[in-house]
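Quick review question:
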């Protein structure tokens, strides 16, 4: 999969160009944050579908801490596994692009 990310407006590009790296770190952080948010959304929905009332447990005073911790741990596990599976290919692809292009 390949994607290209660019600034939406000239004003965005102007602001980013004033930042040391041109805003690259901010873009990467934003994309990564959104990926984690989407994983949290998906995991919460999956847990609710597998165990009706899970979302309610995440809000109730007596069960909130445990339920939210279960959700956090599940998201961490999935995310770590995903990163482990993607890193080697990503490194190979990026080095190929940088060296060969």
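Suggested answer, residue by residue:
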């Amino acid at each position: 999969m390949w994607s290209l990310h660019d600034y939406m407006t000239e004003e965005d590009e102007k602001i980013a160009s004033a930042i040391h790296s041109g805003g690259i770190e901010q873009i990467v952080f934003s994309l990564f944050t959104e990926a984690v948010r989407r994983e949290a959304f998906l995991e919460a929905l999956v847990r609710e579908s597998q165990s009706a009332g899970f979302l309610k447990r995440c809000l109730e005073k007596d069960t909130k801490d445990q339920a939210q911790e279960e959700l956090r741990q599940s998201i961490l596990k999935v995310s770590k596994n995903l990163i482990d599976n993607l890193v080697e290919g990503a490194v190979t692809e990026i080095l190929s692009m940088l060296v060969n292009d």
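Why it works: Residues 64-100 form the longest helix (37 residues). The radius of gyration is 19 Å.
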